[in-house]
Amino acid sequence: MKPISSLLVASDFSADSQHAMxxxxxxxxxxxxxxxxxxxxxxxxxxxxxxxxxxxxxxVESTLIDDAMKSLEEASASIFERSGVRLEPQVQSGKSVDRxxxxxxxxxxxxxxxxxxxLLHTNIGSTPGRVIRQSAKAVLVVKTEPVQPYMKVLVAxxxxxxxxxxxxxxxxxxxxxxxxxxxxxxxxxxxxxKYAGVTEDAISEYRxxxxxxxESEMDHFISTLTGVNKARIHRMIRHGxxxxxxxxxxxxxxxxxxxxVGKQGKTLMEHFLLGSVTLNLLELSPxxxxxxx
Length: 293
Hints:
The chain has helices at residues 15-30, 44-54, 60-83, 96-104, 126-134, 161-173, 190-195, 200-223, 243-254, 268-284; strands spanning 6-10, 35-43, 88-94, 109-113, 138-142, 153-156, 179-185, 233-239, 258-262, 288-292. It is of the alpha/beta class. β1 (6-10), α1 (15-30) and β2 form a beta-alpha-beta unit. α1 (15-30) packs across α3 (60-83), α4 crosses α5 and α9 (243-254) packs across α10.
């Protein structure tokens, strides 16, 4: 499988973005990534607000950019001293999400910290959620302080082309880790059957057949994967009405330190559902989150 060639890590100098830079360095070493860029964006909206409140001179923007470059160079130098990986520092001004997406055009993978430094951006999933929605690139949201390469990866699969790419990306991001493929199935209309007075035995049989179908689809899905060592794959079929919560339970059971999910599902309805699952995982997942296109 082709290794990842380049990554972009966004930094606002928060603790979480520092963790993202550390993860970027680990990925460069573990996944053979040869080009990494660290980007900081000086928010023009914040600049305009400060100008109105404090009557700052026009050259304040260039001063802030120079100060940000100095801080980013120091952060990159610290990463190099500890890991031997060099992240090229880059500072721009504008709207953070817009500049991150523009800079990501030159990279295969985008890394972000889960939370930002400023109070306006501390709600988890704000900037990461907007980048995930708007970017055409794979996005890795770093939620924990990295201490080693990824050791166990859980991949949410619905047997679509998007979940196939999630498996492929998981294998590239964690080249030696076991991959736990999790499918959360639902027995359609099970709740309505209960209200209609269908017996528990009949509902149990209906659920058993739904599980057998899910297992059959999982077998076929795995058999058609290419470029992924099948020996790395472990399958998990789980019944649950709330996919995000089902995935979180699977994360805790396996001890996974990364969960990967495709951005879209097989149908339009699943696209909207998966969007809510992704946002829920941004909040609920105890580990890092990889969202692929």
